[in-house]
């Protein structure tokens, strides 16, 4: 079974993160380590999580000059992560440098994807930073740039996946955060959809945080998410 759910470990301590990890089945999901947890605990915790059988999406959203990003991406490759990401707004040269930094890993290289528009951003937020396009238009532009740079896919809202799936090749990976069931709190996400809708729209992987990590039984919540998308998995 393809593991399409990525559980976001949005914690600031190793103890809390590992307590959650130990309640999940590595056969049912992958895990995401982002800036908060990585800053608090570093690569040692990543290794502990990998040692428990989980594949890791290292969500650090590298965005810097091409040489700096390439070096950081190469280090992540040596950590054996399953997936990592950069910001597409860093430009084509930066993304190409990141891609080339992983060539030495051959068939074992991590998936490399790019962030298009953060799911916390709406139209008004883009206008404030000088972007006149709608979120959908900006996502599409950056997704095409990412494809041209030779990356494996993008992070996008499921609201944009139907458009991207129609425009881009099937093997171009779409990773979707902001996934919520009807009963879940929205939190700080502005462009969200449910798990079944996301997969039907073309999302390959769904990033889920609080609906699983703050559930009374995280593994039961994980099973519910997997069950919701089983018909199209």
Brief overview:
The protein has helices at residues 14-21, 35-51, 66-78, 92-100, 123-128, 135-148, 161-167, 195-201, 210-213, 218-229; strands at residues 5-8, 30-34, 56-62, 83-87, 111-115, 153-155, 173-176, 205-208.
Give an account of the 3D structure.
By secondary structure, the chain is an alpha/beta fold. The protein has a single domain, classed as Aldolase class I (TIM Barrel, Alpha-Beta Barrel), CATH 3.20.20.70. Helices cover 42% and strands 16% of the residues. The chain contains ten helices and eight strands. It has an eight-stranded parallel β-barrel with strand order 1-2-3-4-5-6-7-8, surrounded by seven helices. α1 (14-21) crosses α2 (35-51). The protein is globular, with a radius of gyration of 17 Å. The model has no long low-confidence stretch (mean pLDDT 93).
- Output the strand order for the largest sheet: 1-2-3-4-5-6-7-8
Query: What is the overall silhouette?
Result: globular
Strand composition percent: 15-25%
What is the distance, rounded to the nearest whole angstrom, between the alpha carbons of the first and last residues? Answer: 8 Å
* Oligomeric status: single chain
Say which CATH homologous superfamily is assigned.
Aldolase class I
Strand-pairing-aware structural class? alpha/beta
């Amino acid at each position: 079974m393809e593991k399409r759910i990525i559980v976001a470990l949005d914690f600031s301590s190793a103890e809390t993160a590992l307590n959650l990890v130990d309640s999940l089945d590595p056969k049912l999901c992958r895990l995401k380590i982002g800036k908060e947890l990585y800053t608090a605990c570093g690569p040692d915790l990543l290794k502990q999580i990998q040692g428990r059988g989980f594949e890791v999406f290292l969500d650090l959203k590298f965005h810097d000059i091409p040489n700096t990003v390439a070096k950081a991406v190469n280090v992540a490759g040596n950590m054996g992560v399953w997936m990592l990401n950069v910001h597409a707004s860093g430009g084509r040269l930066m993304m190409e440098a990141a891609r080339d930094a992983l060539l030495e890993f051959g068939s074992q290289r991590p998936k490399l994807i790019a962030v298009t528009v953060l799911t916390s951003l709406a139209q008004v937020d883009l206008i404030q930073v000088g972007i006149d396009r709608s979120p959908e238009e900006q996502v599409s532009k950056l997704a095409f740039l990412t494809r041209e740079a030779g990356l494996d896919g993008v992070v996008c809202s499921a609201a944009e996946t139907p458009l991207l799936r129609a425009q881009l090749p099937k093997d171009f990976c779409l990773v979707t955060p902001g996934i919520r069931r009807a009963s879940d709190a929205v939190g700080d996400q502005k462009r969200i959809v449910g798990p079944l809708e996301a997969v039907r729209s073309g999302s390959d992987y769904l990033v889920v945080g609080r609906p699983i990590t703050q559930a009374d039984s995280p593994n039961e919540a994980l099973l519910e998410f997997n069950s919701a998308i089983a018909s199209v998995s």
